[in-house]
Amino acid sequence: MSKRKSALENLKDFWPEGASQIDQVKKYVTKYQNDTLVIKCGGKILVDPQLLKNFTNDISILKKLGMNIIIVHGGGPRIKKKLDELNIKSNFIRGLRVTDDKTMGVVEEVLENFNSEIVNDLNKKSCNAKGISVGKNNIFLVEPENKELGFVGKPKKILNDKIYELLKSKYLPVLSPMGLDEKNQKYNINADTAASALAKSIRARRLLLMTDVEGVYDKNKKPISEINPKNAKKLIENKVVNGGMIPKLENCIDAVGNGVRGVVIIDGRKPHSILDEIFSDKGSGTLIREWK
User: How far apart are CA 82 and CA 110, in angstroms?
Assistant: First the structure.
């Protein structure tokens, strides 16, 4: 008997109270069994130990059910905290932190430590997680975003073969958002951008972006359950969406236009939002995809 089949037969033993309906799980496990899901871990999960524990618990359930999962994590709040402790001032341009030599050293240290924390927590839950970082086994080849930002890069190429090999070996990759340019210079990458670039490169079935809001809101401040890229662009053009949600939504639109079947912005503060999104018809948060 396969591990997936065994897990489905014993689902009641580990399915968390308050998560989506248990009778829907088998249908969705079958639906996604040959696909890969990329999940970007960000927002308050990065600084709230209980939210991080909730996140790794849900990921362990996905792994137990035999699903192909890749995690990309951010680190902004932790980086800010460390820079403040060291009295290093941060400047931002269009929502991206200007990264000089001194800042880059802090960024790499914080991201490496957080990557290890996630991997260790997942492995305590038998997830066979493996950390991927710029210092050990880099997969992001980058080019500078622009000179003003210093060592902030945008993905130019993803080393897909490394990812495929890990998935084939039943590992759960946990990626830190940094990369190398052609001269092996290290660059920081916006985590949403890194996750979107990866999802596009491997043509993931779904990209989930965890945030601190319910999803994308309409002009009446009501959460939108589903929207297509065309209407999502209108929200930006009409300034219904603003601030940090603009680049996030632009990443979603770009991903859907380049091979990802659907992107979901979900609330990482909400218990079991990942399970509710993947294993229910209703979903969780805002789904961006093309409508047939």
Answer: 8
DSSP state of 15: P
Task: Give the tokens for residue 228.
Answer: 């297509």
Report yes or no: 200 and 252 within 8 Å, Cβ to Cβ.
no
SS3 150: strand
Question: Per the confidence metrics, is the pTM higher than 0.85?
Answer: yes
Q: How many whole angstroms from its chain centre is CA 134?
A: 17
Residues in contact with 13: Cβ distance below 8 Å, sequence separation at least 6, in sequence order: none
CA 244/CA 258 separation, integer angstroms? 22
Q: Positive or negative, the Cα torsion across 123, 265, 74, 230? A: positive
Tens digits of residue pLDDT in 28-63: 999 998 899 999 998 888 889 999 999 999 999 999
Pairing of the two strands 36-41 and 206-211: parallel
What is d(CA 207, CA 192) in angstroms, rounded to the nearest whole number?
A: 10
- Nearest Cα neighbor of 175 from 137, 222, 128, 148 is 137
Please tell me whether residue 214 adopts helix, strand or coil conformation. Answer: coil
Query: Can you say how many angstroms the Cα of residue 24 is from the centroid of all Cα atoms in its chain?
Result: 24
Q: Which of 221, 208, 205, 206 is nearest to 270 (CA)?
A: 208
Start-to-end C-alpha separation, the chain? 38
DSSP annotation of 204: -
Distance CA 193, CA 154 (A): 7
